[in-house]
Every structure is written in structure tokens, then in C-alpha cells.
Amino acid sequence: MRVPDCGVARHCLRDRRARLTLRARESIAALRETICWHDGPMRGREYVHAPVADAEGVVNGQRRVTFPHMGEYHVALKTFIELLGAEAVPPPKMTRRTLEIGARHSPEFVCVPFKYNLGNYIEALEGGANVVVQAGGGCRFGYYAEVQEQILRDLGYDFELVALTGHWKVTGYARSFKRINPSASYPQVVHAFRVAWRKAKAIEAAEDFMRKNVGFERESGAMDRVFSRLLRDLGPLTAFEGIDRVRAEALAGLGAVPLDKPEDPLRVGIVGELYVLMEPFSNHGIERKIAEHGAEVHRFITLTGVIEHALKGRPHILHVIEQAAPWIEHHIGADGTETVAKTWQLLKLGFDGVVHLKPFGCMPEVSAMSVLQRISREHTFPVLYVSYDEQTAQTGIATRVEAFCDMLEVRKRGEPASV
Q1: Each residue of 273-323: pLDDT tens digit?
Q2: Quick count: other Cβ atoms within 10 Å of Cβ 41?
Q3: What is the DSSP string of 350-380?
Q4: Using N-to-C axis directions, what is the helix angle for 170-179 and 6-37, rounded to 10°?
Q5: Distance of CA 215 to CAs 249, 283, 376, Å?
């Protein structure tokens, strides 16, 4: 047998590694570009992805992937997983049982998003999932994955954990995304991300329009029907043109709903911790409750915004600290700095009030809350503070929202409040 020349072999190996590295770099560059596009036209070729499942539901070694519920983002996340060639197993719709089983197996004083996530995982694992995806953040959220993994293993569940934590570069996230299905290529990861990103942006655009207008619709439920159709139509789509078309049709349909909206309605901003902001079940539908009292509701934290900041290494923090001046000089952690900055900005923009949402015991938001109290007191600016745990009841939230909105309306008209 002929022994190959060592120099030639090394050269061939270096050449092969260089080609693979180039392909990976091109894929990562495309991922970075996706984050910078926002709502602009999406370019680039579409990659052929692996089939989702065979007749028995077996996918690439039976990788059945689940994730926590958060609003309607499951539509985009399901597509992302399927385009990676794995089977998506979204948790069942959030119910009281989700929270109860999550709280039963969680540390007593951990924040309520941890309990919701754990409940999601238990329900999904009971439904056949065997790969669990969890993210992380700048507070106790950064430890969710490890603690939840240990709890679930102690309960006897057999699964693989994919933790999207500890990264400050796009390359790190891309490697973690690939762990969802190791047989997926980097171009496949990028394509899946682009499609899911586009769907998430479509959902966010429709939700933003509804928050500002649903409280004024003449026919109750008209916008909800348009939004449900958007979610249904988005589900099977993987082509950018189809996603853009469905998004445009939904926004046109929402815009065609007849409204009885005053020229100068109440404007209420929603700030606080990202999970209770974006998961309606966890905040007892507080955005809709406020809107139904004749108010435009403005929320600024979205999943794509959070992902964008994470993939860019969170360089926006210095800018946010500047926006929060003179109230704070250093980063509070997690979403606390954004809470202060946005409240101060909304006051200067002439908003009628702010609602601050947080899980009970959330330290970054507790720190922000003390600053919000100073802003409210020194500038006579109404702020409603709402904390959530597993004991929070719908009735109490509804009563507080009604009183707050009544007060804002009296204040806007310039009438003296009744005793």
C-alpha cells in the first residue's frame, strides 16, 4: 500500500479545514446580517432542509424538541426546530395545572417564570419530548437551565438539555442552535433562523397594532379573529414571500376593523420583566384588561428585540444607562435598567401612566421599582406596580386595573378625584 506524502496530507487537511471554516463563517455572517435587517427585505438563497418526520414520527434518532411557552412565539419556534430537521413538541396550552405542577417541584421562593417553565417541560416530557431547550439571562434566569435539569432528572425524566446560555458572540449561539439537531448544517441553522425570525416579526407587528387599537373596536372579537387567522396561516409557511404576504394581509385586516377611537386616547406604557410582559397567561391578560378601559397600550420588549441584543453582545446597555440618567448611573441587571429608562422616556413623551410588571422577588425589577417610585413622586406621574406569583388572582388584577384606568381618565380630563 502506498503511503501518502505527509506534506501533501497536511496540505489537503488544511485546505479542507479552510473550506469548512469559510462555510461556517459565511453562515455566521448571514446570521448577523439577518439581525440587522429588521423589517427590510430578506435576501439570500433558501437552503434545502431535512425532512421533518417519517410516518412513525421518528426524526433523526427521535429528537423531539420542546421549549417554554411565551405568548404566541411557539409558531415561530416550532418552525425553527422543524427546519433544523427535528420534531417540535410545543408544551400544551398554558393552564392552571401548568403553574401548579411547576410550583410543586420548584424552590419556594424562586421567581414565577421558573415555575411556569418547569411546568411546561413536565407537560411536554409527558407528551413525548426528549430534548429540552432553555435560554438564560442577566439574573437568576441565567441559572434556570442547570437547576431545572437537576429537578427534572430527580423526577425521573430522561432527556437532553440544550442551554442557550453563556454566549456573547453569534458563533456561540450558532453552535448551541446546532445542538438542537447535530446533523443540521450551519447553512440550515441560518435558514431556519431567518424564517423563524420573519414569523416572529409578523406576530409582533400584529400584536403591537392590536394593543393600541383593540380597546376601541366596534365589534368585540373582530381583531382576535384576524389575529387567529394570521397564526393559522403562518404555521406551515417557510418561504419569505409567503410570510410577508400573510403579514401584510393581517395588518390590512386589522386596519379595516371599524373603531370608535377618540383623537386623544389614554396612552399607557407597560414595562418590567420580560417573561411576565410577553406571556399573557402569566400576567392574567393585563394588556387586554387595560385596553378594554379605553386605552392605547404600548409595550416595548419583544422576543426579537431580546435576541437581537443578545446576539450583538448587549452593547445597547450603555445607551440605555444614558437614557435613564439622572436616575441611575450603573446597569441594574436583566431588564431593570430598561424599565427605568423607558418610564422616564414615557413621562417626557406625555404618556398618561405606566404599569410595571414583575415576578415576586425579582431583584432587578425591585431595584428599578425604587427608582420608579421617585420618578412618580417627584413628577406626579402615575405608576401601577403589579407583582406576580402562583397565588396572584385574576379578580385582584382586574380591580386594580379598573381603578388605575379610572384615575387616569379623571386626571386626563382635569377633574378633581372623588373621595
Answers
A1: 999 999 999 999 999 999 999 999 999 999 999 988 877 766 788 999 999
A2: 8
A3: T-SEEEEEEETT-HHHHHHHHHHHHHHHHHT
A4: 100
A5: 21, 18, 26
